[in-house]
Every structure is written in C-alpha cells, then in structure tokens.
Amino acid sequence: MLEIDLNNQQTRHAIDSDRLIEAGRRVLHGQGVRQGSLSIAVVEDATIHELNRRYLQHDYPTDVLSFLLEESPGQVVGEVVVSADTAAERCGEFGWTVHDELLLYVVHGVLHLVGFDDGTAAQRAAMRARERFYLSELGLSPRNDDPDAEEGEGSEDAEEAGP
After folding, report:
1. 76 CB contacts (<8 Å, ≥6 apart)?
2. Which residues neighbour 57 within 8 Å (Cβ) at sequence distance 6 or greater?
3. DSSP bridge pairs for 41
4. Kind and range of the H or E run holding 127
5. Which residue stretches of the chain are H helix?
6. Among 15, 13, 11, which Cα is nearest to 99's?
7. Of 13, 90, 98, 162, which is least packed with CB atoms within 10 Å of its CB?
8. CATH of the domain at 143
9. Which of 52, 47, 29, 157 is nearest to 104 (CA)?
10. What is the model's pLDDT at position 76?
11. Distance between CA atoms of residues 136 and 131, nearest Å
C-alpha cells in the first residue's frame, strides 16, 4: 500500500492539495513504487531556508528538498518539501501559475526519491525528460523543450538530502 500525505504549513498562497498528491502518486506508480509513504510539505521560504541550511549547509531558500528515508525494490519512504513562496516568485518567469510551479517541484522532488539525479548534463537530461512526461500526464505543457536549459523546466536549486 502507498500512502501520500500533504501538510500545508504556509498561509500566503492557495494550493491545490489534490493535484500535488496526484503528482506524487503518478510519479511513484510510474517508477514502479507500490509500497511505502510519501509526505509532501508545502512551506514558506523561511522554513525551507532553515532545512537547506541544516541538512545541506546551504544558507539560502530553495524550491524543493527531497529526503529519502527508506528504500527497497518497489518501496519508498520519503519526504518532499516545497516552497510556495519560491513558486510564487518564479512562476511568472515562465507564464505558469503558482499551482503549476508547485506541481513541477513535487514531480522533481519525487523523481529524486526514486533515484533520479541532476548533477551532470546527462542526468539532468534524463530527469527533465521524466519531468516532461509526468507534467504532460498531469495536463501541463512543458515550459521549455531544451533538457539542459537552466531556466527551462525543472528545478535548478533542488537538492536531495538525508536526515
């Protein structure tokens, strides 16, 4: 069984909880995960800044953090933390809504949990291709077809962290 919970810890921006949960479910199922749990937290910049500093020693807010807690074949336990403030700030650059930007962050974060990385150009291209696939499944057209574009789709600041 796969459990997905969403905790909206911010009040500045309206969110579409059902859409974010569905994004997590689609990515996990699409990548062969059938058991485990995913926790999605929607937070403000101050909260994600503190988490980024504490776990990655990066002294700035970011868009998404992924915390893989457990994994085995077909099973993942993890957390994805996304910043609604960053989504609101950046969404206008691409002509998207805050909801769309948050959707991208959740897809990106869950892809990290299932083993995708974006540290090299080849890894980034593979991750961007999966992002485009899942965003399209969720009814969202990609912002940019160039898989290596820094300001194309995908989260340039996202990191995978451990507890």
Report:
1. 28, 33, 36, 38, 68, 70, 113, 114
2. none
3. 7, 81
4. helix 121-137
5. 17-30, 45-56, 84-94, 98-113, 121-137
6. 15
7. 162
8. 3.40.390.30
9. 157
10. 97
11. 8
85-98 confidence digits (pLDDT tens): 999 999 988 889 99
CB distance 98 to 106 below 8 Å: no
Measured CA to CA, the distance from residue 94 to residue 47 in angstroms comes to 25
**3-state secondary structure at position 7:** strand
> How many domains does the chain divide into?
1
Sheet holding 159-161, edge to edge: 2-8, 35-43, 75-83, 64-72, 159-161
Contact call for residues 63 and 155 (beta carbons, < 8 A): yes
pLDDT-flagged residues of the chain (< 50): 145-158, 162-163
The one-letter amino acid code at 154 reads G
Which range of residues forms the domain containing residue 101?
2-161
Over its C-alpha atoms, the chain yields an Rg (Å, rounded) of: 14
